[in-house]
């Protein structure tokens, strides 16, 4: 398989989709990003990296950070988190309040905002700073010591975070938050504001394609924990379009409103794509098209 050639081809093939959709505008800093960009990177299980297009441009990873926060909580703290968060698709928008109330403050899964806020809360309790813990994991996995949260994005989201604040207060009212709401929100927003390139993101996600073994052979998760994270990504990782994503791409994936998506081919490689234009469910239009193309052409899917 000539992966480099394939990625170069995919950059050409997705051009008609680049710029389609809308950039997220509820976080003002994200609204300012040029939608006419597309990048793709693949990091193989053995550490080889291939990139094409705008794979070296930094973007806001947003909800993709939820995967790394969950991995850290499972690594540090085991299965206790599953008493506070379910692992079923929600079928609702990622920031919905309705289900949280009818299900008594237990979020449907760790990848909708309410669930991710609970995970960040636990990571805050265990490490003293969820955002730093995620950042340090990503620095280790990528070897990029300058990887950092974009403070303009964090500030912009924090100033407009009424919805997440509502979710966090509701969680607290149900006894499902261990730390003060303001502290948890600040941590959550800072982990979402981490800025990365496609290439860094593929490297950072590689442990999920390697049975839980990270950079330099360090074990981050057990093979069973890795399987479980990939399963939750497959069923819950791409907003309320996880069914469509499974149909088109056929891999565990996690998207973010910055236009990034990571996907995992177990035992083979991690793929990351980025293009800021989002479809109706919040997934990058060109990103999904590229992953569709990738798995269709390679046959590398879990199905
Ligand atoms: N920080 C964003 C929010 O909480 C993340 C959303 C996303 O990427 O899905 O609204």
Structural features, described:
This protein is of the alpha+beta class. It has a single domain (3-298), classed as DD-peptidase/beta-lactamase superfamily (Beta-lactamase). Helices cover 45% and strands 11% of the residues. The protein contains 13 helices and eight strands. The protein has helices at residues 3-13, 28-31, 65-77, 98-102, 113-127, 130-142, 151-158, 162-173, 181-192, 198-205, 223-236, 242-248, 285-298; strands at 39-44, 49-53, 59-60, 148-149, 194-196, 253-255, 260-265, 269-274. The strands form two sheets. A five-stranded antiparallel sheet has the order 2-1-8-7-6, sandwiched between helices. The chain has a three-stranded antiparallel sheet with strand order 3-5-4. Helix 3 (65-77) packs across helix 6 (130-142) and helix 3 (65-77) runs antiparallel to helix 11. The longest helix is centred in the middle third of the chain and has 15 residues, at 113-127. It is globular, with a radius of gyration of 17 Å. The two termini are 19 Å apart. The model has no long low-confidence stretch (mean pLDDT 97). Bound molecules: glutamic acid. Glutamic acid (GLU) binds at residues 62-63, 94-95, 113, 157, 164, 192, 256-257.
Write the layout of secondary structure elements.
Layout lengths: L2 H11 L14 H4 L7 E6 L4 E5 L5 E2 L4 H13 L20 H5 L10 H15 L2 H13 L5 E2 L1 H8 L3 H12 L7 H12 L1 E3 L1 H8 L17 H14 L5 H7 L4 E3 L4 E6 L3 E6 L10 H14 L5
Antiparallel strand pairs: 1-2, 1-8, 3-5, 4-5, 6-7, 7-8
Helix pairs in contact: 1-13, 3-5, 3-6, 3-11, 5-8, 5-9, 6-9, 6-10, 7-9, 8-9
């Amino acid at each position: 398989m000539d992966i480099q050639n394939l990625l170069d081809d995919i950059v050409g093939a997705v051009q008609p989709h680049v710029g389609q959709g809308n950039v997220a505008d509820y976080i003002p800093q994200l609204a300012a990003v040029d939608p006419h960009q597309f990048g793709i990177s693949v990091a193989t299980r053995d550490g080889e990296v291939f990139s094409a297009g705008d794979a070296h441009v930094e973007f806001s990873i947003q909800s993709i950070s939820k995967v790394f926060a969950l991995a850290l909580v499972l690594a540090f703290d085991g299965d206790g988190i599953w008493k506070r968060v379910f692992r079923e698709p929600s079928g609702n928008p990622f920031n919905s309040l309705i289900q949280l109330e009818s299900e008594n403050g237990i979020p449907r899964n760790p990848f909708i905002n309410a669930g991710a806020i609970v995970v960040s809360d636990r990571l805050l309790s265990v490490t003293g700073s969820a955002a730093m813990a995620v950042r340090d994991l990503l620095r280790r996995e990528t070897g990029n010591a300058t990887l950092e949260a974009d403070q303009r994005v964090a500030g912009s989201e924090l100033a407009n975070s009424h919805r997440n604040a509502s979710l966090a207060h509701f969680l607290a009212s149900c006894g499902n938050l261990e730390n003060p709401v303001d502290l948890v929100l600040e941590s959550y927003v800072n982990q979402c504001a981490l800025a990365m390139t496609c290439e860094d993101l593929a490297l950072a996600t590689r442990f999920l394609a390697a049975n839980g073994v990270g950079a330099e052979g360090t074990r981050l998760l057990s093979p069973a924990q890795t399987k479980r994270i990939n399963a939750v990504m497959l069923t819950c990782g791409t907003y309320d379009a996880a069914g469509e994503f499974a149909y088109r791409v056929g891999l565990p994936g996690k998207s973010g409103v910055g236009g990034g998506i990571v996907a995992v081919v177990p035992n083979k490689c991690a793929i990351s794509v980025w293009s800021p234009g989002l479809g109706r469910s919040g997934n990058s239009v060109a990103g999904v098209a590229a992953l569709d193309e990738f798995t269709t052409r390679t046959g590398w899917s879990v199905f």
